[in-house]
Amino acid sequence: MKTDIILAGVGGQGILSIAATIGMAALHNDLHLKQAEVHGMSQRGGAVQSNMRISDKPIASDLIPMGAADIILSVEPMESLRYLPFLKEGGWVVTNTTPFINIPNYPEVEDVMTEVKKQKNFIAIDADKIASELGSKRSSNIVMLGAASPFFEISFESFEEGIRQIFGRKGEDIVNTNLKALRAGREFAEKNR
Amino acid sequence: MQKLLLLGDEAIAQGALDGGMSGIYAYPGTPSTEITEYVQGSKFAEEKNIHRQWSANEKTAMESALGMSYAGKRAMVCMKHVGLNVAADAFVNSAITGVNGGLVVVSADDPSMHSSQNEQDSRFYGNFAMMPMLEPVDQQEAYEMSYHGFELSEKFKLPVLLKVTTRLAHSRAGVQTMEQKAENEVSIPSNPTQFVLLPHIARKQYKTLLGIQGALEEASEESKFNKYIDGSDKSLGIIAPGIAYNYLMENFQDRELNNPVLKIGQYPIPRKQIMKMIEECDRILVLEEGAPIIEESLKGYQEAGTPISGRLDGTLPRDGELNPNLVAKALGFETVLDGEIPELVKNRPPSMCVGCGHIDAYEALNESLKEYGVGRVFSDIGCYTLGALPPYNAINSCVDMGASITMAKGAADAGLIPAVAVIGDSTFTHSGMTGLIDCVSENTPVTIIISDNYTTGMTGGQDSKALGKIEDICKGIGVDPDHIRVFKPLKKNMDEMVQIMKEELAYKGVSVIIPRRQCVQTMKNKKLAEQLKELNLK
Hints:
The complex is a heterodimer. Chain A has helices at residues 15-28, 77-82, 109-117, 127-133, 140-148, 156-167, 172-192; strands spanning 2-10, 32-37, 47-55, 69-74, 87-96, 121-125. By secondary structure, chain A is of the alpha/beta class. In chain A, strand 5, helix 3 and strand 6 (121-125) form a beta-alpha-beta unit. The two termini of chain A are 22 Å apart. Chain B is an alpha/beta fold. Helices cover 39% and strands 16% of the residues of chain B. Chain B is built from 20 helices and 19 strands. Chain B is globular, with a radius of gyration of 25 Å. Chains A and B meet through strand 2, helix 2 and helix 3 of A and helix 8, strand 7, helix 11 and helix 14 of B. Strand 2 (32-37) of chain A pairs antiparallel with strand 7 of chain B, so a sheet runs across the interface.
């Protein structure tokens, strides 16, 4: 079994916390894992991505080959489209619908969503709105993780355990908020897949 | 001993801590920064009082590590690839002096220049200096090479260069740690002139260095980091150093690999194994993450004998990093190399943060330069380099650490006046001070803007050696105090800022303007907040 995921977003949007949670879940299941990210120049409000690879066999390349990614998980809608060449036939695009507009020529959001919906398998979720409704806008990245969770061959319980481990030292309230965010994202995906 | 999830950088750091290192010396630089940060965050390093503060630049770092080695203890130096240019004088000569305590120099290359001015290959330096080199294939090997690197250095009494690249340095995987080794005791070199490079001594030591090369080759031939995996299909042999080996194996997950493969992790390249492949195979493909160094050394001018394929004959692109798809194409497999992205996806380049002080400084500079015209702002390496992009379009050069001041000087000498330099506080103490000395000694009409945000910003907010010292340094160098101007770069101060800049641009001597405001990304840094309080800086 293998799952290759491209995490996408804008520098500062918290994709590395998503990566850390998935990492914990993978370790919990004794799976092999490689996760590549970019630091430095890329962080300053620019497009960022992380290559995450999970497998029951040892993993060779840290980078996901083009055309091999199972999932593109993006916290920003336009960014979900940037890595389409990496997605395999029938792979899942799971994207937030709330745009992050920090460039003068950002396209119309409706046009971006039209492109997303051309994909065979997609989940378009307003993670920011759901997170706000749960009382914590900051947990929108975990809502996104929940929305992508059905497409991993890892149990949902493993992701919950990952949340407890990553956020544990920030206190029970924060853990619970993130668990709620995770479940809300999951429910949305199950209903809309 | 335990299993940890570590970045390649972190694996190197942990390997060094477990391997008996007593000090790490470095200057921040992507993709090497996290090695030192890991040691700084390690409780073990704190308990053992391992030296782990940042150095002013890579040269001082290299020299300090050499000093620790002189005193018998194990030291590590870390830098990005271009940092090795800065450390080069000490680096090359450290192979002539040799070491006492083990010395490992880590240089992190950046193929495809994700965050650099070039993609130079550090292995050139290892070859040039004639020291053994290590290049890991994955995080586990990065740990082990760091762990064993000090032994290797002490065995041959030479520094060891450990080369990594971005895709390993910043990639995370499981690492099994090994038993902790004790640090060395303080001891002075048994040869009292070993480190004295007067010509008559250096000549002898150079002969020693030349004489040991054969032993280094033998060690490579026997190294567990070099593996010859034989195969029945001799039509093609494949040489894959470092992480190129991963991209090779990625293409054989569902296929059988019948070609002979030489995985290289230790240099000099292992002659015996290379010769075996040359003799037995019809053609050789060399996959290198970096410059075609091995490829070139095998090719020569005459393509007599076994043809060599790689970056030099178009089988692989000449520049840029490797990936599984490029390697697939080189192997003749069907693959995709690019794909269509919807047209509406726009470039989203990095930019200065909302609220950054550099932005206000650039606005004032652009305004005050209006009467003089464009093309006279020489800048440097840091977040402020992003001032080159729209909408600021504020700078015209960025070449190497400290070049802002010295290029402004050269332009002014040529008659391009006013000439402006824009440099950060950390870059200033790294390599700007010597340029300022040149300017002051000739009273060159330059306007130097030291944009002080109290930190080394682009690499993640590390300590700046300049904190609280800039004015004193400038005065000490001899800048006229009347022409050292300080202000807080804020919109509400814009008129005053422009006025100050206009005055100093008109002044026909050395001016230093210091826009000073804390980097917005460091607001949660408690240690910095305390330091600022002590220094009475806001």
